[in-house]
Amino acid sequence: MQQLSVTLTIPIPSDSIIISKVELEELKTAKLTGVYWSMKDLENRINRRHEWIKENILYPSKFKKVLDIESGGFVFYPKSKGQTWSFQASEMAAFLEKHFKDIFS
């Protein structure tokens, strides 16, 4: 069997770098670590109004038991008027990714 050895040079633009997929995912996660979203932040993130978010994500029991901080989750559900929603951004982002099909079906 014959073999051919080739050296190839591929230029990389000065405004670009090459990183592994693992490192990219770690950077994405780190960007959200220690960040809390408000309801407005969540609305902007998923491009849905708070009414839709409450009806389709926050209040259905199948999700609330996972999300609610009272059940060990990562969402603070306001208990009285004047309190605001609070979402642990990294966990909420992962939840939305994982449950996309469940949310929209």
Distance between the termini: 55 Å
Q: From the helix content, strand content and strand pairing, which structural class follows?
A: mainly alpha
Low-pLDDT stretches = none
The order of strands across the largest sheet is 1-3-2
Shape: elongated
Rg, alpha carbons:
21 Å
What is the average of the pLDDT values?
Answer: 94
- % residues in beta strands: 5-15%
**What is the helix/strand order?**
HEHHHEEHH
The total count of strands amounts to 3
The largest sheet is: 3 strands, antiparallel
Tell me what you see in this structure.
By secondary structure, this protein is mainly α. It has helices at 21-32, 39-46, 50-58, 61-67, 89-98, 100-104, and strands at 36-37, 75-76, 86-88. The chain has a three-stranded antiparallel β-sheet with strand order 1-3-2. It is elongated, with a radius of gyration of 21 Å.
Question: Can you give me a brief rundown of this structure?
Answer:
This protein has about 100 residues and is mainly alpha-helical.
